[in-house]
Design brief:
This protein is 38% helix and 20% strand. The strands form five sheets. It has a seven-stranded mixed sheet with strand order 14-15-16-13-12-17-18, sandwiched between helices. A six-stranded mixed sheet has the order 9-8-7-10-11-19, sandwiched between helices. The radius of gyration is 24 Å and the shape is globular.
């Protein structure tokens, strides 16, 4: 019998499911059991061409529609997603292995939030009038054309919407390539958008590995590329896009600092550290994986952290009682276990976890290392798994310098009761998405993105509009033209 996760076909192009079995087989593995639950095929060059051709053809009329009309469709899609939240969350759990307890509140719902927000914003995308004596200039905000979205495997539904919603609101068409590890959810987003009334060809989903991504990024008909992924992938995609002078948004990795001062509320700080390291089994780019704790409260912090981590419920992610799931794949699990071994070998003190959990599937026990030094591998490289590094500090200026001593700059957080210190320290940290007495909140109303190697551009909020549209300015002369001859 076919597993319920098996999609109708591998790709969604021009308003319908499309199959081309000539493309390489991509097995879909359920991370909680290691069993194959579905198969899709990578896009052939013919499929890539079909998707871009459909997008380019559909975009012209879409770009001429009013923002109000476009927004109505996006908002309708948001309503459908909310109505089907349960089944979409079950699918997301099959796709990623994340616990249903988490996907029910964080995945399809945040995708719906993005569609609703940008659906509401679509009608407001106006230009401005600039008076210059009796002459004047007016500006027009125009679509870019065909946008390519390349997704990551940690939030497949959310990322499909985070990229699709602003692109469509601005009058663009999109070709979205999900990660080959999690190919299922974006197809449902495409299906729902078209059910909500989106004209065919405006949101296409095609599967594949890096080769397919490369074909999309280098196609001359593509005007914009938005990637969520690792820094090495981002550098490659950025360079390829620059070759064609394309617009880009890069949401890349991080090794973000979370600083806990000696006056912090310990319970909240521990909660923030748990959210910033163990949510989605640690597979979140903005995670605060370098937790700097003031030495006066370090042992108290570690003791409470160990108590709370011990209550994590590892189990079947489809059971709502489970709150900690497996790694997305066997390969990712092995990468994380390799980092854990490096942490042990380099002399960090293991507080809890530190091994593969004794159960089927790709589970790694939530792991905390203390006495971590800045130069250790686990304090420098992005692990993308449930491994927290706790470092000691004594002085504010010292911890700011150490927190900033990284190529990354995605997020940063501070826990303290001292209001002026909170704002002062956040002001000095080199990061794009920051938190005070909290961690990893990502409402669609707030810009999300990094500085330094962690990326360029911003997703969500009004900022995203700048990255999915361009401005035309028109000078109008009311009198006669003067010329030299």
């Amino acid at each position: 019998m076919t597993h319920p996760a098996q999609p109708v076909a591998s790709h969604f192009i021009n308003g319908q499911y499309v199959e081309d079995t000539a493309g390489a087989k991509i097995p879909v593995i359920y991370a909680a059991t290691g069993a194959q639950i579905a198969t899709v095929h990578a896009a052939t060059p013919a499929i890539v061409d079909q998707a871009i051709t459909a997008a380019q053809a559909a975009q012209v009329a879409w770009g001429k529609m009013t923002g109000t009309e476009r927004g109505r469709i996006l908002r309708r899609a948001a309503d459908i997603i909310r109505d089907r939240n349960h089944e979409l969350s079950v699918l997301e759990t099959y796709d990623t292995g994340k616990p249903l307890q988490e996907t029910l509140v964080a995945d399809a719902t945040s995708g719906a939030d993005a569609l609703e927000y940008f659906g509401g914003l679509a009608a407001t995308l106006t230009g401005e009038h600039i008076q210059l004596g009796e002459d004047w200039v007016y500006t027009v905000r125009e679509p870019l054309g065909v946008c390519v979205g390349i997704g990551a495997w940690n939030y497949p539904t959310q990322i499909a919407c985070w990229k699709g919603a602003p692109a469509l609101a601005c009058g663009n068409a999109m070709v979205f390539k999900p990660s080959e590890t999690t190919p299922l959810c974006a197809l449902k987003v495409a299906e729902i958008l078209h059910e909500a009334g989106l004209p065919a060809g405006l949101y296409n989903v095609i599967q594949g590995m890096g080769q397919v991504g490369g074909a999309l990024v280098t196609d001359p008909r593509v005007d914009k590329v938005s990637l969520t992924g690792s820094v090495p992938t981002g550098k490659k995609v950025y360079a390829a896009a620059a070759e064609g002078m394309k617009h880009v948004t890069m949401e890349l990795g991080g090794k973000s600092p979370l600083i806990v001062f000696d006056d912090a509320d310990i319970e909240n700080a521990v909660g923030g550290a748990i959210n910033g390291n163990f949510y989605s089994s640690g597979q979140v780019c903005s995670n605060g994986t370098r937790v700097f704790v003031h030495k006066d409260i370090k042992e108290k912090f570690l003791a409470r952290l160990a108590e709370r981590v011990a209550t994590a419920v590892l189990g079947d992610p489809q059971d709502e009682a489970a709150n900690f799931g497996p790694m997305v794949s066997e390969a990712q699990m092995n990468i994380v276990l390799g980092y854990i071994e490096k942490g042990k070998a380099e002399g960090a003190r293991l507080i809890c976890g530190g091994e593969r959990a004794a159960m089927e599937g790709f589970f790694v026990a939530p792991t905390v290392f203390a006495d971590v030094k800045d130069e250790m591998t686990i304090a420098r490289e992005e692990i993308f798994g449930p491994v927290m590094a706790v470092l000691d500090f004594e002085d504010e200026a010292e911890v700011i310098a150490r927190a900033n001593a990284t190529e990354f700059g995605l997020s940063a957080g501070v826990f303290t009761r001292d209001l002026s210190r909170a704002h002062r320290v956040i002001g000095a940290l080199e990061a794009g998405s920051c938190f005070i007495n909290s961690y990893n909140d990502a409402p669609v109303e707030a810009p999300f993105g990094g500085v330094k190697a962690s990326g360029v551009g911003r997703e969500n909020s009004k900022e995203a509009i700048q990255h999915y549209s361009q401005v035309k300015s028109v000078y109008v002369r009311m009198g006669d033209v003067e010329a030299a001859f």
